[in-house]
Amino acid sequence: MRNFQNILVANRGEIAVRVMRTAQSLGYKTIAVYSDADADAPHVKMADDAVHIGPSPVGQSYLDMDRILKAAKESGAEAIHPGYGFLSENAEFARACDAADLVFIGPTADSIDLMGNKAAAKRRMIAANVPCVPGYEDADQSDDTLIAASKTIGFPIMVKAAAGGGGRGMRLVRDAADLTDALASARSEALNAFGSDELILEKAILEPRHVEVQVFADSHGNVIHLGERDCSVQRRHQKVVEEAPCPIMTAELREKMGAAAVEAARSIQYRGAGTVEFLLDSGGNFYFLEMNTRLQVEHPVTELITGLDLVALQIKVAEGGLLGLEQSDIELTGHAIEVRLYAEDTAQDFLPCTGTISKWIPAAGAGVRFDSGIEAGQDISPFYDPMIAKVVTYGETREIARHRLIDALKETVLFGLTTNRGFLIDVLSKDSFAEGSATTAFIAQEFSDEDLKIDLPAPEQAATAAVIQYHCEREKVRTKAIFGSPQLQDWSSGGSLLTRYIYSWGEETIDLTVSPMRDGSYEVRLGDTVILIDLVSITNDTATLTVNDRRRRVHYDGSTDNVLEISEHGVTHHFRNSIAFAQNAEIAAGNGRIVAPMHGTLLEVFVQAGDDVNAGDRLAVLEAMKMQHDILADIDGVVSEVAALASQQVAIDDFLIEIEAAE
Hints:
This is Acetyl-CoA carboxylase biotin carboxylase subunit. The protein is α+β, with helices and mostly antiparallel strands and 663 residues long. The chain has 17 helices and 41 strands. The chain has an eight-stranded antiparallel sheet. A five-stranded parallel sheet has the order 3-2-1-4-5. The longest helix is centred in the last third of the chain and has 22 residues, at 459-480.
């Protein structure tokens, strides 16, 4: 036995928070590590102690073994939990922990080494009689040998980096004529990503299911499995949706796959949590794919259907304790589904996005679980993986879990950055997913580039935004007034009050006016179209309205002046009042100190120190909320300082340019 009390979590974000939650509940002291970018992150605030480990880039912080080990020594840590990613599957780090007399909460370095190389892992699995995809995994890496092997295997073939994962260094080759180029490009990508250009070949199993089995082992020879997870819904070999159990699993197939996974772990004297991944074809045949020697991102779905805390089991086994469970103790109840919420723009080829979270209120309800490491006011930086949360739901049946997950995504309040939430809702709503028939080809089959584009808001949505914006602006003015009669609110001796809003998206523009009525409702005009809106109720986050006699409920964020974000049914739209920005530029004239009007990225900077400028000249272009905004000079004068750089990310009110007024 190796008892310990202080656990350093060598990770960040939602997994660091998740590990700390269990560790603290068990009475352990937790220690966070953080980079410059994460100084105020939730995992740092949650920990009992925290150690700064360097600059924001991962190579200088979370991937720097020496800094992590130094932090452990300084903080009095006795054990290290690596989470997933970063150093979690680094055998050298596991050995360094042992050398530093630190308990590594994970498998042995030898197990990590063996299963981290696809070629060596596959050779060991073949020896252990675990079903494997026919292929080539030997040491001779010459093109001639690989080409000869391909003829024996038969096309189509998968070329894979032996040391890789996550789809990098992987190529699908359908024709022998394309193999040489695929080998060259896969080698190059593998060498850059993993430091090794070793490859393996496998017979391509087209449109299979990706099914993985959770295994657990202690250091006393006990090995069990906790059922399977279906992770077939993927984009470019990256998992998007995970669920447990697999929708088409039978008791007989589960027994066979579970036995194979247990034998895989037992054959390498495995310890701790691990996942054995298989490809399952339409005929019920399954083949070993790889083994992940760590806790998986998708472990919550297994926890929900087994009632077990996998992190608690990891700690127990790491201390040298018995697993305390036999295979007959494991019962799978109900169904759980997880989606990964990313800060990314699905309409721009899933480009990762940055920004500041202005509002974050995860949905609550029966069977809903959020694993996240974010909070309102937090900056999402470009230095780390764009996954910001995992949304997980449980139900007595798969359909209940699916409906709960769609509803949780729709009801979550999240503003300030672009996410894949709408895409996730669309995935869960597809008939093929609802029927449980999705394979690894699901996204390619169900979504075209056109399907991934975000539709422009309808006139009713623009009218809704204008009324909410009008209400918020009026309330801000009212709260500043020394005295104001509610009876005179929205009253004018000159007739109806008309407030104009112009919203633009590229070349598309919606120009409308809002007029409050005597009964408290609003009349919104878009050209000849009249939309009647009654604002039934409004809080700081949610508004209920009747729009042309139809009830609507939307989440909104109006924290930035003259900019409103609205989320309805999980789809978010941005509304920027162009008129107000033009007016504010005129009002601010004469200052000479140019600051960022909102969070965004500077695309271009047109001036440098010493340039003569006139009021209204373009100084820079800021991209924010999918729109480009001109930064204009507000006085005549000479540019005295330029702090802005092209491609630089800026926050609202960040200093950009100083202009000295002309004499």
